[in-house]
Amino acid sequence: MFFKSSSRSMDMTALRGMLLLLCCHGVSSEFHSLKYFYTASSGLSNFPEFVVVGLVDEVQMVHYDSNSQRAEPRQEWMEQITRDRPDYWERSTGRFLGDQHDFKGSIEILKKRFNQTGGSHVYQKMCGCEWDDEDGDTGGYNQFGYDGEDFISFDLETKTWIAPKPQAYSTKQRWDQNRAYNERNKNYYTKVCVDWLKKYLDYGKSTLQRTERPSVSLLQRSPSSPVVCHATGFYPNRVVMFWRRDDQELHEHVDHGEVLPNHDGTFQVSVGLNLTSVPPEDWMTYECVVQLKGIEDILVPLDPARIMTNWGGDGGVQSNIIIGSVVLLLAAAVGVFVGVFVFKRRNDSAKRRQAGSDTSSVDPGEQNPAPEAQPLNTEVN
Ligand SMILES: *[C@@H]1O[C@H](CO)[C@@H](O)[C@H](O)[C@H]1NC(C)=O
Ligand SMILES: *[C@@H]1O[C@H](CO)[C@@H](O)[C@H](O)[C@H]1NC(C)=O
After folding, report:
1. Do residue 262 and residue 354 come from a single domain?
2. Residues lining ligand 1, CB < 6 A?
3. Ligand 2: lining residues by beta carbon, under 6 Å
């Protein structure tokens, strides 16, 4: 595992309870997506106080933290952006620096509002948009969490804020009154964000629009556990996986896992099937199906001889995968991709600085009136 020092794992334990579940805002993996995670923390010695991570189709493409104080590409194709927008990195850095200030202010306000004097605290924002390249459907979301619980979220339909916690009521009241801010938010999540998503997909098409075939295995932790169909090494993340019997997709006794990133830029996913009430002679009538656009369906019959188990000789297969996934999810949450994702990152900062200086004498707003690439933020008040 990559969390080596004990103080680091203590931080991870502290964080675990404070992070929102990233999986559950109802995003289907059949869409293209652009997401940003903002994480401000206090009292965690081993993490930067502020981290921003941006992902396209679950692939991290931008990173900012309060140590480096620079927006940096995490994919080679992101460097091409300066062709069309020479000041992209300068402007992004400026935006995130402002956000850092707002988020640090917010966490102090939230601590007071929750009557907290010390300890570790995390304030997060998760936001982004989706686009279905087949029917053109789009969607967006923008939500904030404090210490692992929903704090406030934006309703795109009504352009108002939803505050599930009493400590967020006053923020809701103030933000609801800021019509211009809400209008710009709606415009960002329904239009600007989707336009940027399409741009990123185009810049990165040689990697983002490739197809990699998964390897699929059947795993079982103990003789009474569900049999898990596990696919790994696939790309893109838009995968469909299910169990079926006699050409009928099964919905009962089935447990669908989340699609999770691997360290090499591919993805993994699992679907468990509880077979307690199925007599062994019927097992062969079941099969696991994996569908990925651009390749033929992969069919794996439920052959007991093919199941890798945790008992007997080869222990630990499944639990390692699951632990690895949880850690990856957590890492994604706090943006500690350093050392997890090893991307080729050529040192183009000199080139970028030069690109920036070309336009530095021009007011960026006048020179390029296009909307900002990043979401809007404001301090909690
Ligand atoms: C914080 O303290 C104030 C005053 O002591 C009290 O009225 C309020 O209910 C407390 N809030 C919380 C979240 O504990
Ligand atoms: C599997 O199903 C049986 C009965 O259908 C149930 O008792 C058992 O708890 C289930 N196991 C899991 C891991 O869900």
Report:
1. no
2. 114-115
3. 226, 274, 276-277
